[in-house]
Amino acid sequence: MSIQIFILGALSEGNCYPYDIKKKIGKHLDQTEARITEGTIYYNFEVLHKKGLIEKIETIQSENRPDKTMYGITDQGRLALEESIYKVFQKFTTIQSLYAALVNLDKVDNQKIAYLIEDIIVKQRKKLDYIDEQKPEEIKVSEDLMDALWLMRDHAYHTIESNITWLEKLLRHVQSRALRH
């Protein structure tokens, strides 16, 4: 869905060719380990077109080149974009799962996003509490396995702690955007 959010977000700013959007997405993905192929882009364009979220605006034909089709977003597509962004925050899994939504914050109610982020932070803190309650030493296992369990517990704890710190920064950013609009 994140690719579709990127596509809808880009088209909400103006009509584009799929290749142009691939270049835009590539700039955002350069910051991550994710890679995107032209096939993936064209497949997602086709899916969005079949759903009625985007429409073909113009097809340019030239002799020695494949047809080049420009697309635009529909009203239904604008609504779907907004709903998709909210859904990404509601179904939070990882920080990376938010990337496509982050570049489209100008297309949603930032106050609503702030509430969703606050909810994520509460859930992440509950995970920390749960990890705190776990006592690997109460399990009868070998010393090597015990060491591994403590290391995994430590990694999980610090990852969640780091996520909370980042989410708090995001929350402040979104709240300041909400105040400006």
TrEMBL record:
Signal peptide: none annotated. Residues 7-83 form the Transcription regulator PadR N-terminal domain. PANTHER family: PADR-FAMILY TRANSCRIPTIONAL REGULATOR, TRANSCRIPTIONAL REGULATOR RV3488. This is PadR family transcriptional regulator. It comes from Paenibacillus illinoisensis. The lineage of its organism: Bacteria, Bacillati, Bacillota, Bacilli, Bacillales.
